[in-house]
Amino acid sequence: xxxPANTRLPSRRYALGVGMAGEGVKYFRFWIAAxxxxxxxxxxxxxxxxDIELSTWFYTAxxxxxxxxxxxxxxxxxxxxxxxxxxLTRRELSVxxxxxxxxxxxxxGACAVxxxxxxxxxxxxxxxxQGIDADGAIxxxxxxxxxxxxxxxxxxxxxxxxxxxxxxxxASYRWESSGWLLLVPILPxxxxxxxxxxDTEPFGPGWMGFLGRYMDExxxxxxxAGIVLVALVxxxxxxxxxxxxxxxxxxx
Amino acid sequence: xxxxGAPIYRQIAxxxxxxxxxxxxxxxxxxxxxxxxxxxxxxxxxxAQKAFRELxxxxxxxxxxxxxxxxADDARDKLAADFRDRFFERVLAPxxxxxxxxxxxxxxxIDYLRAxxxxxxxxxxxxxxxxxx
Amino acid sequence: xxxxxxxRDVTLKYxxxxxxxxxxxxxxxxxxxxxxxxxxxxxxxxxxxxAAFRKPTSGAVLVGGEPVWENAPIVSRVALxxxxxxxxxxxxxxxxxxTGQIRPDFDxxxxxxxxxKFELSLKKKVRELSRGKRSVLAAVCGLxxxxxxxxxxxxxxGMDAPTRDAFYKELLxxxxxxxxxxxxxxxxxxxxxxxxxxxxxxxxGRILRHEDVETFxxxxxxxxxxxxxxxxxxxGLDVLAEQRLxxxxxxxxxxxxxxxxxxxxxxxxxxxxxxGLQDLFIHLTExxxxxx
Lengths: 252, 133, 292
What we know:
The complex is a heterotrimer.
Chain A: H1 12-27, H2 29-46, H3 56-85, H4 90-126, E1 131-134, E2 137-140, H5 144-152, H6 154-174, H7 183-198, H8 204-211, H9 219-243
Antiparallel strand pairs in A: 1-2
Helix pairs in contact in A: 1-4, 3-4, 3-6, 4-5, 4-6, 4-9, 6-7, 6-9, 7-8, 7-9
Chain B: H1 8-21, E1 30-31, H2 34-41, H3 45-57, E2 61-64, E3 68-71, H4 75-102, H5 106-132
Antiparallel strand pairs in B: 1-3, 2-3
Helix pairs in contact in B: 1-3, 2-3
Chain C: E1 5-14, E2 17-27, E3 32-37, H1 43-50, E4 58-63, E5 66-67, H2 72-75, E6 78-82, H3 93-99, H4 108-117, H5 131-144, E7 149-153, H6 161-177, E8 181-185, H7 189-192, E9 198-203, E10 206-212, H8 213-217, E11 221-226, H9 227-234, E12 239-245, E13 248-253, H10 259-267, E14 271-274, H11 277-284
Parallel strand pairs in C: 3-8, 3-9, 6-7, 7-8
Antiparallel strand pairs in C: 1-2, 1-4, 4-5, 9-10, 11-13, 11-14, 12-13
Helix pairs in contact in C: 4-5
């Protein structure tokens, strides 16, 4: 982790957060480039044998959620001993992780929006259908407006996955043998809300049954509000775990 | 150096005194700074400072603010008496004690000292002659 | 502006066990301290509290006169270097050094100069370093932090003798260049004794002694001579250890005998010798001793 050079104290937390986002993108730049390439060239290869009716980018953008959770958790886990030993307070670290998470989610979210929009253009030009596999039936996303609305929630989804990763990363550092168990409650909640948004397997249909026909009207709003709420709770939880976290003692 | 059990600052003070007595530090001459001593002997500068403070208190060194430490003009005279006392205490007292324990009469020792003093005197005279030639 | 340290009635528990109990300690600004103690005595716990790596169970920890916990202007000028360093093993040596720049007073040029001097290869990953080189990297980061309070916890472990020597030299040079508070926690007491101004001994979670290094060095004595004579002289003294070889007996006492006792001992054919800091430490912290 390369820290910004001799930053002034009150603002170093923000500079550090921005630095981490840059560092993260730089570190994974080849992975990101490869994912983009596969997403666009993959359908081209498959189209020689089959009709294309699924959005590849939808899968890429979904994989990026798990990747985001991994980045959030991995960074927290590595940076707690690293940065606190380098003279950072826990509060500063928590704030800089927040800046990092917000920037990362915005940048990756913007990539997801751009990717889905470009894919729409690309599929239209090739005469393919940009659809998703919802509740066992493949349905096209719909109009350009639908496509953009579909894509617009990605920054928020990245944020909630990032926050979930941070909670689990911080907990795993703090409670060496049992912290990762927080996966058990957090994973189903986040993943099921994500599913509910798209009515995708495995949790989407359940939510559909629960919210029923209202899904088209205000149900989606409820799910989005739920995601915002969960993101806030997770961020607060990560902050709480971090704020008085002790550094582990060294093994002799 | 630094192994006979006396505090290090006292050993440094003793060494500076010895250098004044044998003439390698001249009256009015400048003494190395505490940091130079500390770096040379690899010791805490406060230890070197303690040695200097002791020497200033004894009037052997004096301090000129912002310039450094210097050997007092009368340092040798001051030290001479002190050296004599310490010589008796550190060298002769144990000698007498050990001689008693070993059953050597003090007269034997006095004879021995007289004899070697004669030799030493002769040696000095010879070098002086050699230097003159 | 080097930092003072004040611990007031500090207790640290791990679960039910006391790592530190009711510790009161004051370290003055700008001195080099030696922190001695057996394994598990509480040295690392003590340093962890001072550096705000941990929070005490009770009591106050002040650095530079202020509570150190979550105090950015203070902790950014406090460096605790633990054995092996707190590094991300997947980073390169260069990136690890640059992490230090999060500190306002970190001196990157100095760090790179030291890395060169100690033959640290900047491109290597931390996980590829030998134990010795890892310790060197930790020491380099500590020196270049240019902190107002720098604490090295057993950093010498894994360094070979020439490297340790070079490290102590560098530490002293840095200290003279820029006087600040330094704490050296170590087992190799005699090796660092000359660099210290004061010594703190921790034993079983408590501060056992805190004295000038000279007081320590002049503290004990060994009396060696005919057994009866030694017993007679040592009768009124605090005896730390004794051993016997035929008719000769040697005892280690905790205080330097006064002039009258010395005279009496000399006349009885008893030799009085100094006790090394290391030996004194061993005797003072011997299991079964109830300390002070």
